[in-house]
Write the structure tokens for this entry.
Amino acid sequence: MASIHISSVHKLYGSTPAVRGIDLIVENGSFMVILGPSGCGKSTLLRMIAGLEDITAGEISIDGRVVNDVEPARRGCAMVFQNYALYPHMTVAQNIGYALKVAGMPRAERDERVRRIAGTLGLELLLHRKPSELSGGQRQRVAMGRAMVRSPGIFLFDEPLSNLDAKLRIQMRLEIKRLHRELRTTSVFVTHDQVEAMTLADKLVVMNDGLIEQVGSPAEVYRRPNSRFVANFLGSPPMNFLPAVIDREGSACLADRRMPWPQLRWDLAEGTAIEIAFRPSAARPVTGATAAGILPFEAEMIEDLGSEIHLHGAVADTIVAVALPAGTVLPTVPYGIAIADEAVHAFLAVNGSRVDPLVIPAIDTKTIGADACREKSLSSI
Ligand SMILES: Nc1ncnc2c1ncn2[C@@H]1O[C@H](COP(=O)(O)OP(=O)(O)OP(=O)(O)O)[C@@H](O)[C@H]1O
């Protein structure tokens, strides 16, 4: 096991910045997931830790030793790639044991180590096969075995599951989680799949445009996104955003001049443009649209996904989505949607940063876990 310290790291490709100043600590034995859209710089960051890319500025240390100029093989990292990168002419056993052979380990000891790792990964019966005779999941397991064989201090995973079909992805994800529980090897896992990120991470890092937007436990990041970008990126259907303006009392006034949450006050100047946001799963249909916390809503489309129901409709000219538990019976009379104070988020229109109300309502944790882990809906984006 080893810790990684990343300070003020920048990467330029020619004059194009890919990573624009990252500070991050990966603690010993932790599983950190870096999540972000395509092109945000997450693979570049991982490759700089591995030593496969030079660092333009800043410093990366592993276990207290600056490794900027240390060659990849001497950093104690093993990397698992998206495309497996297996040697096609070698058997599974040879692929897994190759690094030990190169290191000069005697045959008997090597075979014993390969057998043990193959056992951990359920590959015992496939040791004599070539990669072309394996399924995608089996190949990925061999790639894992090859990374594990030298007992590295750090595992680096670059979207290792993205070539697998949905079912295998889940299986391999659980396997990686089980392996991490057993081995406790410090791991950094790059993905753009939020289900993978939410389920694997001890600590989640959301990146955007070469910068870190937020670091925290998956639940923290999901519950309290600190920017509009993170709020919009995590969750499916995505969060709903309603344009609003701060009134004289500090309350949020929507485009239709309603102030549904009179108890929520922000310490912002009158006229400040904000966006009020809420998760689709935080809204509940209610009849009678006059009480506090209730918005007028008219469903334009209803999607029954089996596991839940999605309503799409408009609130004050903005399209919003509502996610309801399967079997919810919708009112037969006109209805609104209720959003509790504690489910309301707000972001400054000018830069998307989070602004909390003066009194922060308690968060209802019951709704969070269920929503964050709702596999089917999350994986659909
Ligand atoms: N070798 C390279 N030469 C020039 N530009 C590069 C190179 N590698 C990456 N980039 C650019 O750097 C930026 C970050 O790329 P990177 O591969 O790190 O993103 P990513 O978040 O991992 O994306 P993806 O999920 O699509 O792999 C992108 O704009 C990309 O085009």
The two ends are 34 Å apart (CA to CA).
